[in-house]
Specification:
Blueprint (H helix, E strand, L loop, with lengths): L12 E2 L5 E2 L5 E12 L2 E12 L3 E5 L6 H9 L6 E6 L2 E2 L10 E4 L11 H11 L4 H14 L15 H13 L5 E5 L7 H16 L3 E6 L2 H7 L2 E6 L2 E7 H9 L2 E7 L5 H8 L4 E8 L2 E6 L3 H13 L4 E7 L2 H9 L12
Parallel strand pairs: 5-10, 5-11, 8-9, 9-10
Antiparallel strand pairs: 1-2, 3-4, 3-6, 6-7, 11-12, 13-15, 13-16, 14-15
Helix pairs in contact: 2-3, 3-4
Bound molecules: adenosine-5'-triphosphate and magnesium ion (MG).
Adenosine-5'-triphosphate binds next to helix 1.
Length: 342
């Protein structure tokens, strides 16, 4: 976040006596006891989530779990029934201007088809109260970040889904928000579009933006997020760093090892006997898959054994494919999206 804010900012939180309240917790976003009810139906029910400054949080959950509702509450598009939301320690309810520090793309908003990206950004810039000369600089900056600068003067009516997605993200970034919320940003994109989206998210992450990304794509969450929160029926069912959440549940990861020569059964036996290793499997003559819950030193010992045995280590990849298994075990109500109708 640049020091000079382009829009109204609330950098401090004053209490009734005028003293400044600050949060030392280091949370870019903190949600406590959030509930959103529609009549007697609780779409979100006592939900807590903390996102450290600069961290990317993945919000995972099945259809109807309450992801978009949470993001709408955080962006100010919906009023929570209960709970508190703080941006950088500043409580939303008491300081509505804190909402200006959030940029969001929720569900699938469309840019106006008759407008060009430059016009959309100029419109959003004015709405956000950004001074005129800064609008030009800022919109060029976000269009370059999102890779839409070459199309700045083309009407979005003719844009592909991926290009429109970029324009809506650009509008969300226009006021240089501290917290960015992206609701299923890669949904409906082709593999190249998804890859581009990942790069865009990685770029924002590099800039130190605090982000919440809701997604159904567990691989995406695993690759992009520092932490994940899994929700079902509007309630949090798991949360923490990606590795801790998965490890805490499954206790082990999968190591896939590729060697430059064929491995023997005797070698496999030796690997299986190493501390931290379980479930050895030869995927093919030069690829091993191991269950592993050891230390870094024990992982190094596997590499050492490969060398001692006269094999070349081409790669050793660690994966937490357990995220899928964890997700499936913690969530399971396919009918969640119609609960409110019953
Ligand atoms: N305006 C509304 N009135 C009544 N119920 C609603 C309203 N908006 C959402 N809901 C219900 O709240 C629940 C949570 O919806 P939400 O859109 O937050 O889920 P989601 O996790 O984003 O799902 P998806 O993955 O399908 O986008 C659903 O059961 C939905 O039907
Ligand atoms: Mg949704």
């Amino acid at each position: 976040m640049s020091a000079q804010g382009l829009t109204m900012r609330c950098n401090e939180n004053r209490n009734a006596t005028g003293a400044v309240e600050t949060s030392d917790a280091g949370f870019g976003l903190e949600i406590r006891g959030l509930s959103k009810r529609y009549g007697s139906f609780a779409a979100v029910d006592g939900f807590d989530m903390e996102v450290l400054k600069g961290e990317t949080m993945g919000l995972l959950g099945p259809n109807g779990a309450g992801k978009s509702t949470i993001l709408k509450c955080v962006s100010g598009l919906q009023f929570p029934t209960d709970g508190t939301i703080s941006i950088d320690g500043v409580d939303f309810r008491r300081h509505k201007e804190a909402m200006a520090r959030v940029g969001c793309v929720i569900e699938t908003p469309m840019p106006y088809p008759v407008c060009t990206p430059a016009e959309m950004l100029s419109f959003v810039g004015r709405m956000r109260g950004i001074p005129k000369d800064e609008i030009r600089v800022r919109s060029r900056d976000v269009m370059e970040t999102l890779g839409i600068w070459p199309w700045r003067d083309k009407r979005t009516a003719g844009f592909s889904k991926g290009m429109r997605q970029r324009v809506t993200i650009a509008t969300a970034l226009m006021h240089d928000p501290d917290v960015v919320l992206l609701d299923e940003p890669a949904s409906g994109l082709d593999p190249r579009g998804m890859m581009d989206m990942r790069q865009i998210i990685a770029g924002l992450k590099k800039k130190g933006t605090t982000m919440v990304i809701s997604t159904h794509m567990l691989r995406e969450a695993y690759d992009l997020c520092d932490s994940v929160t899994i929700i079902d029926h509007g309630k949090k069912v798991a949360g923490g760093s990606v590795k801790d959440v998965v490890k805490g549940f499954l206790q082990k990861t999968t190591l896939t090892i590729k060697t430059d020569k064929d491995v023997t059964a005797a070698f496999l036996k030796k690997v299986a006997a190493l501390p931290g290793v379980s479930e050895t499997e030869a995927v093919d003559s030069r690829t091993l898959r191991l269950g592993f819950d050891g230390t870094d030193a024990e992982r190094t010992a596997i590499a050492g054994l490969i060398q001692t045995e006269g094999l070349g280590l081409l790669s050793m990849d660690e994966s937490y494919d357990g995220l899928e298994r964890l997700y499936m075990s913690l969530t399971g109500n396919q009918e969640a999206e119609v609960r409110c109708l019953s």
